[in-house]
Amino acid sequence: MENIFSGRTFAVTGGFAGIGLAVVQSLIRLGAKVHAIDIAPSAPAELENHSSVFCTPNGNVSDIAVCKAFVDSIPGDIHGLVNCAGVSPFEDKLASYDLYRQIMEINVTGTWAMATEVIRRMLEQEQLQCAAGCGIFTTAEKSLGQGSIINVSSGGGFRGIPTKAVYCASMTNTTLLNNVAQGEEAREKFINTAKGRIPMGRLAEPTDIADCIVFLLSDAASFITGQVLPVNGGTD
Ligand SMILES: NC(=O)c1ccc[n+]([C@@H]2O[C@H](COP(=O)([O-])OP(=O)(O)OC[C@H]3O[C@@H](n4cnc5c(N)ncnc54)[C@H](O)[C@@H]3O)[C@@H](O)[C@H]2O)c1
């Protein structure tokens, strides 16, 4: 596994905490260069001064211009994008319009905007490769398998979660009426309920998810595309 990503460059959103941070750390350990963007004002200590990590703090992915500037700032080819930036606030019984908009703009618009800018770059990369000569292949044929985009979703995209109706909708198209519990009490209740439903009896660590993302970005997953891969400890 050592250096399997040597010479490759990846973009990671939400790279300063949680799953995104675990992804950044795994990728650099495996030899990649990583450009990480996050709305947080500063990068965590473990990323600062690392020669293979380039951090963009104060970067709001729900702003399309920010996504474009971030992608434009990455030199050379981009081999993959991991969209980890996301929010899942408790929404009470009915989310306000402002909260609805905030969740949708980050989880949906942000994911779409960053992917669109990266795909634009990947298409340019392909044209350059073809201009250098791609034998008998047409541009369309050559375009297969030129880069990876991984969007981190949620089990909430498959089933409802009490107090997270808009969040669930932002992770796919399902919605559900919210429960009433709020605040710390709701958080604890939520975590205990979630744990009880997971056959492996524990919540995921960020590295559990990062390991799967590393696999999907690697050559070992070169014939996997357009799939949803649940990493959920066996939850139905
Ligand atoms: N942790 C879980 O158990 C879990 C489960 C299912 C799905 N998810 C989803 O996975 C994704 C990552 O989750 P996590 O647990 O790592 O969350 P996290 O809160 O630990 O990290 C998210 C990161 O995204 C950044 N961020 C938030 N809004 C942003 C914005 N507008 N622009 C740029 N960066 C922004 C945050 O600053 C943070 O660094 C989220 O979409 C989350 O909903 C997480």
Question: What report would you give on this structure?
Answer:
This protein is α/β, with parallel strands linked by helices. It has helices at residues 18-29, 64-72, 97-131, 139-142, 165-171, 183-196, 206-217; strands spanning 9-13, 33-37, 53-56, 80-83, 148-151. The protein contains 7 helices and 5 strands. The chain has a 5-stranded parallel beta sheet with strand order 3-2-1-4-5, with helices on both faces. It is globular and about 60 Å long. Mean pLDDT is 88; it is low at 173-182. Bound molecules: nicotinamide-adenine-dinucleotide. Nicotinamide-adenine-dinucleotide binds at residues 13-14, 16-20, 38-40, 59-62, 84-88, 106, 110, 152, 154, 204, 206. One of its GO terms (molecular function) is quinone binding. Keywords: Oxidoreductase. InterPro entries: NAD(P)-bd_dom_sf (IPR036291), SDR_fam (IPR002347).
Task: Give a quick rundown of the structure.
The chain is of the alpha/beta class and 236 residues long. It is built from seven helices and five strands, in the order E-H-E-E-H-E-H-H-E-H-H-H. InterPro entries: NAD(P)-bd_dom_sf, SDR_fam.
